Amino acid sequence: MKKRPLLIPRIAAVMLALCTCVCTVSLPAGIVITASAASIIPQKGAELRAHLKAHDEEFTISVDGVEAQSDDFLDKMIAEALAETGRPNDGDYIRYSILSIDCDRVSSYGTVKAFNFRIIYNCSAAQEEILNRNFSATEEKLNFAGKTDYEKVKAVYDYITVNIRYDSSDGNVAFSAYSALINRRAVCQGIAQLTYRLLMSAGVSCRIIPGCGNNGNHAWNIAKVDGNYYYIDPTWDIGNYPDSYSYFLRGSNDLDELNSLNKHSLSNWPDLDYSLYAEHKSGNFFNHYQVSPVAYSKAAAAAAALGDVNSDGLVDSNDATAIMNEYASLSTTGISVLSARQRTNADVDRSGIVDSNDATLILAYYTYASTGGTLPLAEYVGTK
User: How confident is the model at residue 371, as a pLDDT?
Assistant: First the structure.
């Protein structure tokens, strides 16, 4: 087992130092600071996010108003800057690009007027630009078009476990997605950061998990497939063949079941810095990102989704209508109006094509289930 460098102290070294000109600010009795329509937090958070994405090392964000005087304003601004937006180079991608933050409040006559930031990143702005220029070429190689979420996650996982090696020799840079993509070597944090960006670019919801591996700091991911989140740890599957992966789409109860020599845990979460990990510290992270207790089963997921073309949890006439629309479009224009996943769900008879027979089977099954039938659709189709 390779020794893995510490992760959390490097990415959570946030020093919120008050400069000497800061005075204690007392708000008038009865004033409660809350985020509202008039809050400046969204604006200032976006401003901070832009600086972080540009890898700016020293900059000032000016503030005004009563809201900026609250003790937790800085934490709220940072949380806003690091919030998940759905964009692949926001959220966790920014969070894990940071080595350390130093911030001073600048006051005038006891009123906070600005925040001076000094940031150290795991890679330089020039290196990040090189990554950005090369990123689309990697996406093209992975060819996400028309793939299901499962297929996208599998493509990214296969790419990383084959093309990247675990290596800490590059110092701070080894903790970056830049090192993983360009140098083809990185530690767990850089690998998890690249995994996040690739999957988010492919439209798959993903987060980076800060935790412990074999009692040392470690990072891995969760990814959403067929409505559930699952753990993935490409770092610990580097060099393994796909049929012998130990950490691909695992559940919360069986993450380490296939490899008893390694152990994941979240034992360091109480020590995470609040400024960078507010949602983790609040206890709401896994309420929002509910991880399946058991590993992903491709066969079970396919069986459960069969016939549910519109993914509303039902197999009914709406699904039959969607199939007929697909059949009509293919017959007249040759163009599919369904996604790859929808076509898989629509091919009820598993003939390899979506046609009127699939719609007929769904309508027959809908009648059967409505009158008390209990067979799953796949078994029902097998009786026809």
Answer: 92
